[in-house]
């Protein structure tokens, strides 16, 4: 859902994003849903090393098209996808091991359900198509996304030459 006239928001000091989604969009992650944790997750370069301080990279990651991703693997719990697989860090209680035990997670997990792309030197933010199809947290609360963009978009996204979120495992 894109607006005709994109809005510019200062997300962090001197870090502006062009918002292409409806400014009235609200979002709140739903506890019973783990859909976005059924996938492998792209790690930006510095995150690969940050993850290495918290987990065994050989066990947790895989390389695909020259980039590092959190591995998607077989799970023996009910929170996995229909094919029985999910992100390496999705625990049997439905929580993210990284978030629960290390208060840390990859930027891609914070960004969801939004998409990010760099265009003309600007960071542009929209809603991922998959979110409209699968994310249960869309427009179910009073929490406006546009007022909380700093929680979705880590500041270092602005430092990356390619922060685009469309790369998938
Ligand atoms: S790293 Fe954590 S939040 Fe991200 S997809 Fe995996 S389980 Fe979910
Ligand atoms: S798909 Fe949406 S509601 Fe479900 S876990 Fe991910 S962010 Fe939360």
Approximate shape: globular
Q: What is the terminal-to-terminal distance?
A: 25 Å
Oligomerization status of the protein chains: single chain
Count up the helices: 6
**Overall pLDDT:** 95
Distinct ligands, ions and cofactors found in the model: iron/sulfur cluster
Succession of helices and strands: EEEHHEEEEHHEEHH
For the biggest β-sheet, the strand order reads 1-2-9-8
Task: Report the major sheet.
Answer: 4 strands, mixed
Number of domains: 1
Determine the strand fraction and express it as a percent band. Answer: 25-35%
Helix content: 10-25%
Radius of gyration, in Å, reads 16 Å
pLDDT < 50 runs, ≥5 residues: none
**What is the number of E strands?**
9
The secondary structure category is alpha+beta
